[in-house]
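anyone seen this seq b4? input:
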Amino acid sequence: MRSPGWKLQLRLAPYFYISPYFLLFLVFSLYPIIYSFYLSFTDWKGSKEKNFIGFENYKVLLSDHTFWLSLWNSVVIFLLYVPIMLFLALIFASLLNANWMVGKGFFRMALFVPNFVSVVAVSFVFVLLFNTQDGLINTLLSNLHWTNTPIPWLESPWWARISVAMMVLYRWLGYNMLLVLTGLQSIPKDLYEAAYVDGATKIKSFFLITVPLVKQILLFCTVLSTIGTFSLFTEPFILTKGGPLNSTLTPVLMLFNESFQNFNFGYASSIAVCFFILMMVISLIQMRLFDEK
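predicted toks r here
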């Protein structure tokens, strides 16, 4: 005979099985977020004492030139590679979606391989490639007589930003290409056939059918690229250490420096909170701008 509480046990059984996920989320995600928010109102520097100082960290942060420079660096790097990356992703995806294209599997794998390689290993390879004196890129440019003097890829502020942008472009082009390709494969072939019957060229079909129907995919890629650009750490850390003259310093790299070099955990927590709010606002603005309504 069943116990009186068997119905209650039956209702609670699903929650019991999914409880490990929520416990891990509470311990490793929600609690650190709440604790970091609390630390942003203190002057904690790793010692036992945590003095509550209110909004002092935020006042200092909003007047910190280095913080605003890190945001500006992220905007510049974003503009240097994201438009090119999305354009190339759309072109490559269209080519790989064409019926006449051969070796599609090979080219998809070749473009997506950089996502499987360790970003640390790729960063060290790019350090060698961008070496001013003996780097492969400057050697090729010199042998082709395209430049008389070596380009200071990692020593000049603007060239350093371009170097970081080129590395991020190399790493994430294939990923975005696959996302766009997924959207292209969902477009009915009848639309292209009807456009062909009406006399539309392939170029017109591309701009009037392909681009509008993958706009949401491009929005998704743009939002991910925005968050990823402002969250860059490994690439600028290994390539330039945030230099020269803080020209490749990003908010996350600044947060790392404040936390594990200056041990100013309260101030670093305020950077994390402001960074989270900024990313949320930028993502909402981007989605509104691309809103079909």
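The CA atoms of residues 172 and 267 lie 32 Å apart. The first helix runs from residue 6 to 39. kinda curious what u guys think
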